[in-house]
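HUMAN: I'm a chemist; might I ask for a sequence paired with its structure tokens?

ASSISTANT:
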Amino acid sequence: MPSKFNEHEITKLRNIIAELNKEIIKSREHEQSVLTEFSSLNNELVTLQRELAKNNSRLNDAKNQEVKVSEAKSEFLTLLSHEFRTPLNGIIGMTEILLMSSLTEEQRQSVTVIQESSQLLLYLINDILDLSKLEAGEMKLNPSEMNLRTISKHVNMLLSAKADKSGNQLYTEIDDSLSDTLIGDTTRVTQILMNLVGNAIKFTQGGSIYTRIQVLSEKDHKQKLRIEVTDTGIGITKEDQSRLFRPYAQTSDGQQSKYGGTGLGLSISKYFVKLMNGQIGVISEYGEGATFWIEVSFEIKSNDEAMISTTNESEMNRLTAVTLETTDCIQCPPLEHPILIAEDNSINRKVVLVQLEKIGITNIDTVENGEEAVAAYLSKPYCVILMDHMMPKLDGLEATKKIRQIERDEMRSHIPIIALTGNVTERHRKECLEAGMDDYLSKPIPLETLRDMMQRWLPELQADSILNEEVITELLNLGEEKKGGLLETLLEMYQADTPSKIDQLIHYLTNNQCNEVIKTAHDLKSSSLSLGIEHLSLLLGKIESSARMGCLEEPKRMKELLVPAYEKACREIKNLLSSIHQ
């Protein structure tokens, strides 16, 4: 029995082992199948990774190529701007000077045509540059106090001659509930209205153009506005309306040579409206006129502090090209030291020289490149240097860096250096300031802009506005004691506190303490105004307003002017008191 039982068990075990072997074989076959499938998937994954790496490489190459193309485009436009602005500076500058001389009516009309034609060319260059900056995302809004009633009136005034020539009448309707002071970009809003009203005039003959500003709603300290410009002109077809706001796009009628233009005005306006988080559109039937509309919200000014507009002067100059009538030159007191002009282009050098002479500055030296500018600086003292950006041998940036290094090494006083350039991009402006230049003039340079710049950096040209005569006279007549007693007492108190406060302000500016700059500049401005010290008050007001908008770049450049302006005002008051007591 035991023997049979063992055989049975052995057989049973053999069968179990055989089944297990089969399972093992199946398992191995399945494992092999899985491994094969995994290997296949892994190969596919590797292939996909390789393709992805290739695609990423292609994308990076494409991106790098796009960046290179964008940079090349930017450099090309910058060069184009510079090359166009150089001869334009000569044309516009000389026609401006010529219009200030004695001319016959026929001569004046001819010169005016030259001026208007050159201004038109300048507008076209600026439009192309604006479009480039907008497409690159470099265009920023510059919010400040804004009065839409004043802007609308200003636009109509600038375009009235053009409207009269076309036999058109300009009308304006403004909602009574429109706030007097909103916060927005005055320059860009003006540019939009100039484009819309200018287009309406262009395509209307013997008709009417209406500008309407309506308040749609008011909440959260903001007013939502609808601005409409309606004309009775030729109208726009549905087909043309669909492509109106594209760059370089024009209507079928607009392409006719008699209307002119580049087709950029509306596309640029649309970009600006988008930057303001607004909308723009058109309503028109062909032959029945057109209405261009904008809906946009602006913050209502709610604080008591004035935000002085920081609109870039060159931007406003491009919008307000007004023909100058014959005027007397502005007589300036003789300068202690000459002004140096460093400019390689003989035409531009002559234009700036004549412009300076026209505003009464005749003590002038000129050089043709950066090396000569540095040599001239070493040879004798100057009040200010007007430095061209692009010059042979040594450009304006490198020449400025050398002069600043000499100042540091030899402990020389800081000399104002003002850039003269045909490059108007923000990048080039920053390059000039980072190189050590104090201010920036873009070509072409209007006479008024040059005069303002000279007065800003040459305190001796501010003699007429150092003090507010009305305030000084009032202080002289106050008080029961001897005449001038109150003014003398106030001056003593002012001199006791002001120098240390100016030192504090310079310290806060140097260390980027924006809130402290605002408080100290405001305090100094108030005390200066109460004593009739006008020029220093204006400087402090500009510093305060820039600081309120978080910008300390310009105030830092102005800090060198504070102590001379303070000392000059104190001397003026002391001289006045001395003359009274004699």
